[in-house]
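Design request, tokens follow.
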């Protein structure tokens, strides 16, 4: 195909994808450097010399409160009018509020001491607002050409030969201010970052002389500006920052204290630096991972667990089970059969319908829905469609994919409900459509009320609530019912053995085969396979860092699936050998109990890594971690159940039953 044909096809694909990220009116530590062309940002912007480029402002964020705020809730310089940028569903859900600003620049023209505005006298409320945000360590986020502003941090790392090398890394945003003592041992005061020095990295095309922005860096300063009287609103003359007099802002100047009645002047510099970084690789520094060996250690650790479990399963399958089946099939008399013990003796009860069978079917269907959503999301992320260049893309994709995967939920839960000989498939489909989304929506709404009371931009607007309700009731629920209807038309395979009318008495079980011990034991290894990667995911969510190692994550998820399946098969086999046929719910709980360890780890992470002290952020953390843990329980439990179901059908199909 010609270049133009390929370009047209690519643009058509992107146009279709944009339908899944329709904007409404009013994205998991450091990562591997990703070299490539990010599909969501497929149209780079070329700038000629002297072109006007406008900066946009985004929310204020803090790792101490986890509550984002609109930039203009603070007494910063405001344009007239304030224009909100269109945002997709994911951006709204994570609290982004992108707006225009008074910061502007001319391409490849350095600017010094540009004044934004002046506050003649800080009011009591303005002073309190600044002091509170500085105390809570809020950071300001800005955007230029779709790149977030970042502070430069130089980190010393070891290369492959053991030598120390310095690498440039980025921290998103810059602090609102800082606290320091004016005198040694004195009371700490709040100081405001009112002067910003932007460094714009650009890559220039030598043939066309056009440039593309490949970096957006900032260095904040606190300076008590002085100026020549009288103040000129159009072109004021600063004495603390005057390029004509070779006077520039440095960290040695008197800082801008935050106190009632003080005068504040906001200003900025713009410096341009030509860079060899190409536009397609401009996110590499943002996504740079300085500790990639930890991820490889995580993979190796998980692989060792899988090899151990695979060895146990192979031992059971190839030796013990083969021996059992051969022995059972060679028994000739009823007296010999009565003397036997083990899993064959419960053949008349092993397929007995479990208690709360409808609820079990719903959980399995929901687990398949979450699993399918996870795999498709990872596939899109690995292909680059959900890169950080596409803000909110990950959140939007997860919501929409979960909605459309409702069909699988209805179908799988309907199939198992039919296997359990349930009488009311419509009622069961309704439960499947309402259970997990209902929990999500309930917790979400409850927490949103408290976030709204804090006047945070993290509170979801009414319009977005309406869209979420429409996705649930207008799309997801009908799809669940459609899947359940197709399940009613499916022919169900007969059980390999008949179920007795009278349940068999279960012998007393040893303590190590009791329900609680067996279930809690089953969750340890699946959690052990993912806990290292879990640390990075929690760090990206709660410490405002990028997560883009989806290749690692996909490997970990695959290992998790194998681990859940194998550990549940082993425990189910031991349970049946002890003549306990109540394996249905036990198999689900065994691998699903890994969610208990996940929540426990999240609790340890909260008290050791985070500095959250306020009630609302604490409620948010444990509310969201509770929902995530419940979803993880359903996901891992379903995998364990399906693996055990296939295992039980296989072994009982292999023996002769009179």
């Amino acid at each position: 195909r010609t270049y133009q044909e390929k370009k047209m096809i690519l643009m058509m694909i992107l146009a279709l994808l944009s339908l899944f990220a329709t904007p409404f009116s009013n994205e998991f530590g450091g990562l591997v450097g990703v070299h490539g062309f990010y599909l969501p940002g497929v149209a780079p912007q070329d700038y000629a010399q002297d072109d006007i480029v406008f900066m946009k402002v985004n929310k204020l964020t803090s790792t101490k409160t986890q509550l984002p705020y609109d930039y203009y809730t603070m007494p910063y310089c405001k344009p007239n009018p304030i224009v909100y940028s269109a945002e997709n569903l994911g951006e709204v859900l994570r609290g982004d509020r992108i707006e225009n600003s008074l910061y502007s620049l001319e391409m490849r023209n350095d600017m010094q001491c540009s004044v934004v505005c002046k506050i003649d006298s800080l009011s009591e409320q303005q002073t309190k607002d600044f002091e509170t945000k500085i105390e809570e360590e809020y950071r300001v986020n800005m955007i230029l050409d779709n790149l977030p502003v970042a502070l430069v941090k130089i980190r010393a790392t070891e290369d492959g030969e053991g030598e120390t090398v310095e690498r440039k890394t980025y921290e998103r945003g810059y602090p609102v201010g800082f606290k320091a003592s004016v005198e040694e041992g004195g009371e700490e005061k709040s100081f405001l970052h009112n002067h910003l020095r932007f460094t714009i990295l650009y890559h220039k095309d030598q043939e066309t002389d056009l440039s593309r922005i490949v970096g957006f860096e900032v260095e904040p300063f606190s300076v008590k500006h002085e100026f020549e009287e009288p103040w000129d609103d159009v072109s004021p003359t600063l004495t603390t920052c005057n390029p004509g007099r070779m006077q520039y802002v440095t960290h040695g100047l008197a800082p801008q204290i935050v106190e009632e009645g003080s005068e504040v002047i906001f200003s900025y510099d713009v410096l341009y630096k030509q860079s060899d970084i190409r536009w397609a690789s401009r996110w590499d520094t943002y996504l740079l991972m300085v500790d990639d060996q930890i991820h490889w250690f995580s993979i190796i650790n998980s692989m060792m667990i899988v090899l151990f479990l695979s060895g146990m399963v192979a031992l059971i399958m190839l030796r013990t089970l083969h021996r059992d089946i051969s022995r059972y099939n060679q028994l000739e008399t009823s007296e010999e059969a009565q003397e036997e013990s083990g899993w064959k003796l419960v053949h008349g009860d092993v397929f007995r319908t479990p208690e709360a069978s409808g609820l079990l079917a719903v959980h399995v269907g929901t687990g398949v829905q979450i699993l399918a959503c996870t795999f498709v999301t990872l596939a899109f992320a690995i292909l680059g469609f959900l890169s950080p260049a596409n803000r909110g893309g990950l959140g939007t994709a997860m919501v929409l994919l979960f909605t459309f995967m409702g069909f699988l939920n209805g179908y799988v839960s309907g199939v198992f409900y039919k296997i359990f000989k349930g009488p009311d498939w419509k009622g069961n489909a309704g439960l499947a459509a309402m259970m997990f989304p209902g929990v999500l929506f309930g917790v979400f709404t409850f927490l949103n009320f408290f976030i709204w009371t804090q006047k945070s931009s993290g509170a979801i607007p009414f319009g977005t609530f309406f869209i979420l309700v429409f996705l649930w009731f207008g799309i997801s629920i009908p799809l669940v019912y459609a899947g359940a209807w197709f399940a009613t038309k499916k022919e169900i395979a007969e059980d390999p053995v008949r179920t007795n009318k009278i349940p068999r008495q279960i012998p007393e079980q040893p303590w190590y085969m009791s329900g609680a011990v067996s279930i809690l034991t089953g969750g340890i290894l699946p959690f052990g396979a993912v806990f290292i990667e879990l640390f990075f995911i929690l760090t990206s969510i709660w410490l405002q860092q990028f997560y883009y190692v989806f290749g690692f994550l996909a490997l970990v998820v695959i290992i998790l699936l194998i681990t859940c399946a194998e550990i549940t098969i082993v425990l189910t086999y031991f349970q049946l050998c002890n003549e306990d046929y109540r394996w249905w719910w036990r198999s689900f709980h065994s691998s699903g109990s890994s969610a208990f360890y996940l929540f426990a780890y999240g609790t340890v992470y909260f008290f050791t890594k985070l500095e959250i002290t306020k009630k609302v952020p604490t409620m948010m953390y444990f509310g969201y971690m509770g929902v995530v843990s419940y979803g993880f329980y359903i996901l891992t439990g379903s995998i364990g159940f399906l693996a055990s179901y296939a295992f039980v059908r296989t072994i009982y199909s292999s023996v002769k039953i009179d």
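Comment from the thread starter after seeing the answer: thanks! Confidence is low (pLDDT under 50) at residues 1-41.
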